[in-house]
Structure prediction request, 106 residues.
Amino acid sequence: NAWGSDQMAKPDINFTIRQLEYFVAVAASGSITGGARLVHASDSAVSDAIGVLEQSLGAELFRRRRSKGVNLTSDGLALLPLARGLLTEAERLGHRRMPCPPFQAA
Prediction:
């Protein structure tokens, strides 16, 4: 998979916390619709965000099954614990006030 090999070239990856939230929600629910309900967003917003995430990562994260939801691919399975960890850290960071460095006049 794309995240387990040190021999792969590191892509210029750009993603948002929201995209990871949507990814985790869809993985948890097994469908775009279910994931959208969990994050209080529209199906199209969630689907579009996951498409952009997949494009950024250069990996298909879900196999779409007509009218039967989605399944994680091997890349999706590899990303899921990493995404959950990043979301946990982002939440911790959001609850922490960062001290301002003292002002020094030039």
